[in-house]
Write a structure and sequence with these properties.
single chain; transferase; 2 domains; 310 residues; 7 strands; Rossmann fold
């Protein structure tokens, strides 16, 4: 690993949830924040290391803006799914927080892709059928990041986490699975508490609640109206930047959402995606010693030697 000397920072964060998108990162962040020894900003998605404008403002700005309310001492972290979207992010994190612990929560990449697609449709950003969108994303091997349409690319976990392994030792990266968080959240959290150095005996009171589920907008114009109002309050200094981000995120992901059950994904498209992601799942097994609970990928189907993320 060719590491340049890190830039020392005051009050370094202890952990980052780096994604993946549509994989229960919001729920995981909320559960961790319930722990009395852990502080996670309520807005989530700070995107400090992935957003060039925020990154230029400096780590001190980010910390004072979003972590001023954190008790001292405590374990501090944040969750931004963009950290698994933009390739420059891991290097920025390494140069600023070389000792930080990284949590990647991964969902079956087929289900993640479909959930991402449904979200884009519900936001009016997608008009193609899913099969056409998948074919286009698989064929597009450019380096351009498209947050609204990279349904397949954002599930290529070997490529993404392979980039992180160029900047961090594997001991600083913990991989957990969305499906296991849903099935036994207390057990997953106990392991993560140990990983970040918190008391492992605590059980959050909100484990039955799911956050930021995909659904329809209840009032199509509410998000835009709320953002405009909150920006005026922010300019008048009635609310802080941290509170502004928290309220925007809450309006967008919870207040104005009516959960909608997903239609069944066609077996043909599912088979195409299973073939595409097979090497990624095999890589995860080899590199992190994990067994993803994804029935689309039986061990004998993913025993190839593709080193997409190496």
């Amino acid at each position: 690993m060719n590491a340049s000397p890190p830039t020392p920072v005051t009050h370094p964060l202890d952990f980052l949830i780096i994604g993946a998108q549509k994989s229960a990162t919001t729920s995981l962040a909320r559960y961790l924040d319930e722990h009395p020894e852990i502080f996670v900003p309520g807005g989530k998605e700070l995107e400090f290391f992935s957003d060039p404008q925020r990154y230029r403002r400096g780590y001190g700005w980010m910390y004072q803006t979003f972590f001023a309310a954190a008790a001292a001492p405590c374990i501090k972290g944040e969750a931004s799914t963009h950290y698994m979207m933009y390739p420059q992010t891991s290097r920025r994190i390494r140069d600023t927080l070389p000792q930080v612990r990284l949590i990647a929560i991964l969902r079956n990449p087929i289900d993640r892709a479909y959930s991402h697609y449904r979200m884009s449709c519900m936001r009016g950003r997608e008009s193609r059928d899913f099969a056409s969108a998948v074919a286009a994303d698989i064929a597009d091997r450019s380096d351009t990041v498209d947050e609204n349409h990279n349904y397949v690319r954002f599930g290529e976990y070997a490529r993404i986490l392979g980039g992180y392994l160029e900047d961090f030792p594997s001991e600083q990266i913990r991989v957990v699975f969305t499906e296991e968080l849903e099935r036994d959240p207390a057990a997953v959290l106990q392991g993560l508490y140990a990983f970040v150095g918190a008391d492992t005996g605590f059980v959050p009171p909100n484990l039955e609640q799911r956050y930021n589920v995909t659904g329809d907008k209840i009032l199509p114009g509410l998000d835009r109206w709320a953002r405009s109002l909150l920006r005026r309050l922010r300019r008048l200094r009635v609310i802080s930047q941290a509170r502004f981000s928290q309220l925007i995120f809450w309006t967008h992901t919870e207040l104005n959402i009516r959960p909608v059950a997903a239609d069944a994904l066609s077996p043909e498209v599912r088979a195409v995606l299973a073939e595409h992601f097979a090497a990624d799942v095999a890589w995860l097994r080899r590199r992190f010693g994990v067994n993803p609970p994804w029935p689309d990928f039986a061990p004998d189907e993913v025993a190839g030697t593709d080193e997409r993320g190496a």
